[in-house]
Predict the structure.
Amino acid sequence: MTQIIDGKQISKQIKDELKDKVSKYKSEGTEISMAVIMVGNDPASAVYVNNKKKACEYIGIRSLSYELPEETTEAELLELIDKLNNDPSVNGILVQLPVPKHIDDNKIIRAISPLKDVDGFHTQNVGSLCIGEKGFVSCTPAGIIQLLKRSGIEIAGKECVVIGRSNIVGKPMALLLLQENATVTVCHSKTKDLKEVTKRADILVVAIGKPKMITSEYVKDGAVVIDVGIHRNENNQLCGDVDYDDVYEKCSYITPVPGGVGPMTIAMLMNNCVESVALQMSE
C-alpha cells in the first residue's frame, strides 16, 4: 500500500516547533527578523514572497519587505544588501530569484553575509556543507531530509539516486544524503542508461525540470519517490517531474505535487532564520 508523504502536515509540525522557539527568544528579549528583497514583478516570485511573509507571521518572525522596481541597478541592490548585512536587528536576508537579467545573481548571492544567508546559497555555506561544518543548508534539500526522517524512512545504508545536479537542489541533496550514510548516485542529462540507474534506487529524488518525465519504468518496486519539480500541464493544473498516477502503485512512499516538497522549502527557510540567531551570537 503506497503512502503519500504529506508535506503540508510535516511543514506545519516544523513551523509549530519554530513558533515555540521564537516565543522563547521573544521572552528573553530577542526579536528575530528577516529581510525579503524582490526586484521586478515576476508573478511566480510574488506568490513565493507572499507565502514566505505568511510563514514569518505565523511563526512570529518580523518580516521586512523590499519590493524594488524592475529597473533597480545592480549597484543599488548591492548597496541595500550591504546596509542589511550591517544592521544587527536583521537576522536573515533573502533575495528572491530570479533577478532581472541586468543583475548578476551570483554576485548578489556572494554579497549576502554568510551568517545571514538563510537561503544557504553562499559559497561559504556550500563549502561548509561539503566538509560537514555548521552553516545554512539550501532549504529544499534540507526539507527533503526532514520529510524522510519524519516519515520514519531509514536513509543509512540505502541506495539513493538524485536526478539533477543544480547548485540549489541536486548537489546539496547528494551531500546531505551522504551525511546520512546513504550510497548516492547523481544523474543528469548526460547519464547513460538512466532507467537502469534509477531502478536501483531505494530512494529516488527527482529534480530534473521536465514535467512527468519519470514514469513507472524508471522506478524500482517499493522505492521512495520524492518529486521536486513543479509545472503547469496543458490543463493549467500543477504537476511534477514524476508521472504521479503512473508511478503511484510501484512506490512505498511518494510526495504529491502540490503539497509535498514545496511547503517544506518554506518551513526550512524559517528554520534557517531561527538558527541564524545562535550562529550570529557565536561569532
